[in-house]
Amino acid sequence: MFTTFMFATGIENSIPTINNGRTRIDEMEKCGHYEHWKTDFDLLRELEINVLRYGPPLHRTFLGPGRYDWSFPDLTFEEIERRDIIPVVDLCHFGVPDWIGNFQNPDFPDLFAGYACDFARRYPWVQLYTPINEMFICALFSAAYGWWNEQLASDRGFVTALKHIVKANVLAMEQILKVRPDAIFVQSESTEYFHAENPAAIKPAEIMNSRRFLSLDLNYGRRVDSEMYEYLMDNGMTREEYHFFLNRSSLRHHCIMGNDYYITNEHRVQANGITRAAGDVFGYDEITRQYYDRYRLPVMHTETNIVEGPDGDEAVNWLWKQWANVLRIRNTGVPVVGFTWYSLTDQVDWDVALRQENNRITPVGLFDLDRNIRPVGRAYRQLIRDWRDVLPAQSVCLRVPVALPSEYDERPVRRQREVTRAMRQNEEEEEFQQAAQ
């Protein structure tokens, strides 16, 4: 029941709305997963991968408070269980059902927590979760950049979206732990860095480099920097809302910090605060170390890709570079437990961050949308073959208590659930006492 390293991929299930809510961008539909889901699971076997970032389409499944359409999730998760694939279940990826509206809705956290609880009860063998994907990016793109969902471009809109998204994530973790006490949460979050172009840009870059941590600071119950505290208070967060997060810091004991890194994650900042892409200046290893030094949690590289360009080897070379970064931070003491090329297939309109419906294929997958393997798919398969038996020997003490679906009812796994249930009860008692003081 213990694994030393998780080689993973994912099936993209983004569902943001654009055009003031009139257009839903459903990547599972765009990429043909609703039609080819069995074939997509076959591709995992071809890659020799058994860890999959995957989730049901929230807008099709969550029909109202306590109302669900489980028809597609039942088909896919039954097949995942039968194949003994370990899913990291992504419950909310950049959008909500129309009846909820958007992330400005204060009812969203409680509604989503109820959905997470009912999902966990329906599929109790699921152990790994990303309740809400890339919380910081979701709030930024929806309410600061004006791209998705509420399409706001204000600090107050951003803080409102962020506090609702992170609260929903925290409440979902609490509810899932009541069903599966040995659940593990992989916070897939974008790792960002902002470089000042000149001395006049130092201050705005410093503010952005503080703001990038807000989602994980709140999620892990870490006190934010003083400037960020003022920023939150000035833009609509109350002291009571802030203390809600501080009083749930014990949830971090159930978490793996997922770090996503793309070539677009580093930014050049001008004196007026305008940013542009910087490329991979520091790289995954340096930026992930900054996040690790802040939170001190096990790490998983949860997303990366790059477009296969005209030479045909651009993605292969990027895979090699990311893997070299993972090995470097692992060899210097950071407990890295997994790596992910995201996603399994090409995506659609990801070149414009889903802001427009152009129906243009972005060639970033291990397979194209005809389900033909790309060079990076072959390279990833070979990487897994080369390293999967080497890494355990390099770190015999690093173990993640992940059970295969087929092991759900076995005695060691049941025992682990009882141990973690007792641990969680003690944590809740301590949180209650702290909140009462």
Automatic annotation (TrEMBL):
GO biological process per UniProt: carbohydrate metabolic process
The organism's place on the tree of life at top rank: Bacteria
Stretch forming the signal peptide: none
Keyword match Hydrolase: yes
InterPro entries: GH, Glyco_hydro_1, Glycosyl_Hydrolase_39
Keywords from the named record: Hydrolase
UniProt entry tagged with the keyword Electron transport: no
GO molecular function list: hydrolase activity, hydrolyzing O-glycosyl compounds
Protein name per Swiss-Prot or TrEMBL: Family 1 glycosylhydrolase
